[in-house]
Design goal:
mainly alpha, 5 helices, extended, 66% helix
Length: 110
């Protein structure tokens, strides 16, 4: 079974139950392509994801929780806990922050 975004989008809109079956099969096939060590880890991770999705009261709550799980992993993996600086992920550029221009009406009232 090959992943196509169009099929996922159509199923999600028209038949959510069929979408869940399709999604689960895609995940299962992906995991089965990995080494036995990776399969064990990925099955455990997928179990955690499925349980968080099941516990969530809304799809948005599920999304927020899963996003938090990803961010936790990112910080655990790439942040040095002792000084909170990025270790293997290096920041290349800093953002420039510009001030919003004053509202003309406010300026006229002064």
């Amino acid at each position: 079974m090959k992943f196509t975004f169009e099929k996922c989008a159509k199923l999600a809109l028209e038949d959510p139950d069929a979408f869940e079956v399709y999604r689960a099969e895609l995940v299962k096939q992906f995991i089965e392509q990995k080494s036995p060590e990776e399969q064990k880890r990925l099955k455990g991770l997928q179990f955690q994801i499925d349980m968080e999705r099941r516990k969530a009261r809304t799809p948005m709550a599920s999304c927020i929780k899963l996003n938090g799980m990803m961010m936790d992993h990112f910080y655990d993996e790439y942040m040095d806990a002792s000084n909170k600086k990025l270790s293997s992920y290096e920041k290349k550029e800093c953002a420039v922050i510009y001030a919003w221009p004053e509202n003309k009406k406010q300026g006229a009232q002064k």
